[in-house]
Design brief:
Elements lengths: L10 E6 L5 H13 L3 E6 L1 H4 L4 H8 L10 H6 L2 H7 L2 E7 L1 H9 L5 H8 L4 E5 L3 H5 L1 H12 L3 E2 L3 E4 L5 E5 L3 H12 L8 E6 L4 E4 L2 E3 L6 H12 L3 E6 L11 E4 L3 H12 L4 E4 L6 E3 L18 E3 L3 H7 L5 E8 L3 H11 L4 E6 L11 E2 L1 E5 L4 E3 L3 E2 H21 L1
Parallel strand pairs: 1-2, 1-3, 3-4, 4-5, 8-11, 8-13, 11-12, 13-16, 16-17
Antiparallel strand pairs: 6-7, 9-10, 14-15, 17-19, 18-21, 19-20
Helix pairs in contact: 1-3, 1-10, 5-7, 6-9, 10-11, 11-15
The structure holds ligand PMT.
């Protein structure tokens, strides 16, 4: 959700310039409104050749600003008012033309005038033909604007409407929303280097089968997303999931618990904290059968060997890192979580009773209790996994502050 500041709801002023990717800006407005932002759209003349202001007005619930020399618009919306009310100004899609104008200080229409007048941070998401994007003039303009503090999102590689393949596509609206949320968040985790695990493991049995569990990865991805938004450097070691990695996260995809252990041990010494939300497989088949196991008439017995306990190993090798474990329990939640906290030498454990409705595996919400090594027990109500991730980080910051005082 959009964070409420002193002024109430956060306002994103979205400038749409004229490119084929304008249709994606429509989805961007929908997503921003869903996240609780007030969205005020401004369009250039070029943009109106692709999408009508009415489409944006219907989705944002506000009149769209298009003209600077219109008496009605200037009295109802006002370009200085637009510049002042923005918590963030976003230009998506941004054409080579609009980037060139901003870099040269040209203010000859509503969008460029508002940009000139605003003190809010500005995020620019270019989208254009690959050769235009590679043009040294445009690249020089981007470098200049970056030096002046403007934020940019790289266009994405792929098939372009002009028929070319290459870098030039507007990033997905969801990624732009994440970038916006990141820019508006307090950077209270700047300087932290987090190693986060997510998802299940696949422990192969034969070429077509594996043993796994019901983890979707959502909890770990929420931690990664919130960590990046709050300024941390995040490496996400993820088992197989259907989720896309949050923008700005370094993803290390793994399959088995052994691969997960390897990736974590490699990054451990450079991390300031490890957060293990993954449902690490406790066992793997003793033998991998090279050919598909044939169906027989009788019972098929599988021998399973235990996997190493990664978190316990980290607990033994701890050298200043904060260790956060999760406990997925179906009974004696607090007692079992306390035992894991102690035995694995953790600083914090997030206990979730996975039998409860709205808690644990797969859904978008969780019900958790936070327990720390001083014996404090903090039950939390049902909340989204994104919100829980934020609460875990708030707790972690408080733990660090206490540690520094001791
Ligand atoms: O992925 P989602 O669908 O969003 O679901 C979220 C979740 C339920 C998976 C998550 O909230 C959660 O509880 N993750 C931990 C699941 C688990 O494996 O719990 P555990 O009690 O078995 O393990 C305790 C801790 O030790 C965990 O942090 C686990 O990552 C770690 N562990 C476990 C086994 C092992 N061999 N090595 C480990 O490091």
């Amino acid at each position: 959700m959009a964070e409420k500041g002193e002024k109430g709801t956060r306002t994103v002023v979205l400038g749409v310039s004229g490119g084929i990717a304008c249709y994606k800006a429509v989805e961007l407005v929908r997503l921003l409104v869903r996240e609780g932002f007030a969205v005020q759209v401004m369009m250039t003349r070029g943009a109106m050749e692709f999408v009508t202001p009415l489409t944006f007005q219907a989705l944002s619930g506000r009149p769209v600003a298009t003209e600077i020399f219109s008496l009605t618009q200037e009295s109802e919306i006002g370009h200085i008012n637009l510049a002042d009310q923005a918590d963030l100004l976003v230009i998506a899609p941004a054409t080579a033309n609009i980037i060139g104008k901003i870099a040269s200080g040209v203010a000859d229409d509503l969008l460029t005038t508002v940009l000139m007048a605003t003190r809010a941070p500005v995020l620019i998401a270019p989208s254009m033909n690959v050769h235009m994007y590679e043009n040294p003039i445009l690249q020089e303009n981007i470098r200049k604007l970056k030096r002046l503090g403007y934020h940019f999102m790289e266009p994405v590689e792929g098939y372009l409407a002009c028929g070319y393949e290459g870098k030039g596509r507007l990033p997905e609206p969801q990624d732009i929303v994440e970038q916006i949320q990141g820019l508006l968040k307090k950077k209270d985790l700047a300087g932290e280097r987090f190693l986060i695990t997510a998802g299940p493991n696949h422990e192969p049995l034969d070429p077509v089968r594996y043993i796994s569990n019901r983890s979707s990865g959502k909890m770990g991805y929420a931690l990664a997303r919130s960590g990046v938004r709050r300024g941390a450097e995040v490496t996400l070691v993820s088992g197989p999931t259907s989720l896309s990695p949050p923008a700005g996260v370094r993803l290390i995809p793994v399959q088995t618990a052994a691969e997960m252990r390897q990736a974590i041990l490699q990054g451990y010494s450079g991390a300031t904290a490890v957060l293990m939300a993954a449902a690490v497989a406790d066992y793997h088949p003793e033998k991998f059968v090279a050919k598909k196991i044939k169906k027989g008439k009788g019972t098929l017995r599988l021998n399973l060997k235990p996997n190493p306990d990664i978190l316990r190993e980290l607990g033994m090798k701890k050298n200043g890192q904060i260790l956060v474990g999760f406990a997925a329990e179906t009974e004696s939640l607090i007692a079992n979580a306390k035992k894991k906290l102690r035995e694995k030498n953790l600083d914090l454990i997030v206990a979730n009773d996975v039998t409860k409705e709205g808690s644990g595996f797969d859904g978008d919400t969780n019900i958790a209790t936070l327990l720390d090594r001083r014996g404090a027990v903090h039950p939390l109500p049902l909340m989204s996994k994104d919100e829980l991730a934020d609460r875990i980080y708030d707790y972690l910051i408080a733990l660090k502050k206490r540690r520094e005082k001791e």
